[in-house]
Every structure is written in structure tokens, then in C-alpha cells.
Design goal:
The protein is α+β, with helices and mostly antiparallel strands. The protein is built from eight helices and five strands.
Length: about 350
């Protein structure tokens, strides 16, 4: 009964500092390693909340194993330091208890924690790393959201160049609009001008919708059948309202196949790493043997004597080999070596 109360006291002095320290260290590591390091990867990308929550969740889970040793160290110092400060450790020692009996519940807890951490690192962490790295890669590849500024030509959208003279306070009403359409890949042959317009996107943000008012559309028809080579007909359209849809496929978050990232060591457990190490060792041995064989042939010279010897895997010393050659073969071998 006495030992049960003692073990309860020891655990109560250790567990609260451990939990608090683990939470604080995870938060600090998460803030430094993820938020600050990758902040510039997120800004201006127009990521939805769900993708950010997934990314941060994966990052938070991956950081936990790194913080457990620090939490154990600080909790041990704080917990047993507090017992020593209140002379509770001295009272336990004076009652005849050994140091191991005093720390036994904490020792058992840490052993169980170490086993759970190993299982977590071996089976769960590789999957988390795979999800995190693949999502982070896709976010890095995503283009920034459309940000059209007043009086500046914007050419971040493939096959289009836009210029807006003025924008309203809510940024959706535009004035003095110029659009140059290169989507036909025939040069700057389609041009649109409008006095005013509205800027919106489709529900799935896959296209930019421009509703133009009071303007003109010019199209230079190139390579029209039957027309003279030096003549280029021009089509002109005067409109009161015209809707222009510009695809924003490259601005959407595209998911890459996760199988492309599975070859990295962070995405493997210990058995997969061991298998890769064995296959890599065999491959290196094979390549080194081939390199040794080819180097021997080119260094000694392409003589029948050496080829037969190398084939039978009975390599002879260099001096003995050169001494066995006649004058012509010796000269040719030296030339090969120099080359």
C-alpha cells in the first residue's frame, strides 16, 4: 500500500511537467520548422482551409517524436527536482528505499513510451511523412493567385496579358481594360479593349470570368485559305457586353501520385530500408566488378592474353603481365595506359 502511494506520488510529479513540456516543445518546433520555414510557400497561393489544415496536421504529428526526448529530460529534471526541493526524496531514502524503487514507475513509463515511439516511428511516421511531403510539393508547384495591379501589364496567366487602368475599392469592378489573347499560338492576333468590366471566378476557381462592357475586339486572321500571302484580314467586333473566360488550370492545386515519393528513406520502415540497403549493396558490387573488369582491359591493353586471364578471373600483377608481352604489345599497352 505504501509503495502504491509512493509510485502514485512519483508519477504525479513527473506526468504533468512531461505533458506541458511536450506541448510547448511541439508548438515551438512547429512554429519554427513549419510556419517560419515554409511561410513563403503558402503566401499568395490561395490555398483552401482544408488543405492547410491537412498540411499542418501532418507536420504536427511528424514533430511529436522529435520532442519526446526533450520532454522526458525536462520533466525528469522538474519532477525529481521538485521532490528533492521539498525533501521528499530524502524522506524516501531514509525509509530504506533504493533509488531504483523510487524511480521504478517513471522508468516503466519511459520504457513503454520508448516502445510506443518505436512503433509510431516505424509504422505511422513514414505514412505521415509521405502525405506531408507530397502535399508540400504540390503546394510549392502551385502558381500564386491572380493579382492584377492598376496600370501594370499582368502576364502570369498562360497565353494572356492583361492591363487594368483602375480598380474599385472591392477590387471586382475594373476600368480601362486591355486584354491580349495569345491562346491560338499565332502571336498577338486577338486584342480586346473595354471601358469597364467585372472580374469574378467560377465556383471551382478553374476559370477567370471577365464581363466586359462598351468595348471592341480585334482579331487578325492569319493563314486564311484563299487570301494572298501578304494580306491579313482583320475582324472587328463592337460590343456592349462580352464575357471572356480564361482558364486557370495551372493556378489550381494538382495532386501528385504519392508513389513517386515512396523511394525516400523518410517514407520507409526499417525493413524496407534494410531491403533497399541490401539491393543497393548488390548493385554497387556488380558495378564495381564491371568497372574493375573494364578498367583492367583498357589499362593493360586489349591483348588476347589479358582478356583470357580476366575472363577466367585470374588477374596477374601488372609487372608480371608487362614482362610477358612482346615489344609491339608492350608499346600498344603503354599507349593505351597513357591515353
Amino acid at each position: 500500500m505504501f509503495l502504491k502511494k509512493l509510485h502514485t506520488l512519483t508519477l504525479k510529479s513527473f506526468l504533468p511537467p512531461f505533458i506541458i513540456t511536450l506541448f510547448i516543445s511541439v508548438f515551438l518546433f512547429f512554429l519554427v520548422e513549419i510556419i517560419i520555414t515554409y511561410l513563403d510557400e503558402f503566401i499568395g497561393k490561395g490555398l483552401n482551409t482544408f488543405d492547410l489544415i491537412k498540411l499542418f496536421t501532418y507536420a504536427w504529428i511528424a514533430i511529436i517524436p522529435q520532442c519526446i526526448p526533450l520532454a522526458v529530460l525536462l520533466a525528469s529534471i522538474m519532477g525529481f527536482g521538485n521532490l528533492a526541493e521539498n525533501y521528499e526524496l530524502a524522506a524516501m531514502k531514509s525509509s530504506g528505499l533504493s533509488l531504483f524503487k523510487i524511480i521504478k514507475p517513471v522508468f516503466v513509463f519511459i520504457v513503454i513510451l520508448a516502445g510506443m515511439t518505436f512503433l509510431f516511428n516505424n509504422f505511422i511516421l513514414p505514412v505521415v511523412h509521405l502525405k506531408f511531403q507530397s502535399l508540400l510539393y504540390d503546394i510549392r508547384q502551385k502558381k500564386p493567385t491572380v493579382n492584377i495591379k492598376e496600370g501594370i501589364f499582368y502576364n502570369k496567366i498562360d497565353n494572356y496579358t492583361l492591363r487594368v487602368g483602375k480598380k474599385s475599392l472591392n477590387k471586382d469592378t475594373l476600368k480601362d481594360i486591355y486584354i491580349y489573347d495569345h491562346s491560338a499560338h499565332q502571336g498577338n492576333n486577338v486584342q480586346m479593349y473595354a471601358k469597364t468590366g467585372k472580374l469574378t471566378t467560377t465556383a471551382d476557381t478553374s476559370a477567370l470570368v471577365l464581363i466586359l462592357r462598351d468595348g471592341n475586339r480585334y482579331e487578325e486572321v492569319i493563314n486564311q485559305s484563299g487570301s494572298a500571302p501578304h494580306k491579313k484580314p482583320l475582324a472587328q467586333l463592337n460590343f456592349k457586353q462580352l464575357q471572356v473566360n480564361i482558364e486557370l488550370v495551372d493556378f489550381k492545386l494538382k495532386r501528385t501520385d504519392e508513389n513517386q515519393f515512396k523511394g525516400h528513406e523518410e517514407m520507409m520502415n526499417i525493413w524496407q530500408i534494410d531491403s533497399v540497403a541490401d539491393s543497393t549493396t548488390r548493385l554497387l558490387s556488380k558495378r564495381l566488378h564491371e568497372l574493375e573488369r573494364q578498367s583492367g582491359i583498357f589499362f593493360y591493353g586489349r591483348t588476347s592474353t589479358f582478356i583470357t586471364t580476366a575472363h577466367n578471373k585470374k588477374l596477374v600483377p601488372i609487372k608480371q603481365f608487362y614482362d610477358s608481352l612482346n615489344a609491339n604489345d608492350h608499346f600498344r599497352s603503354v599507349e593505351n595506359a597513357l591515353n
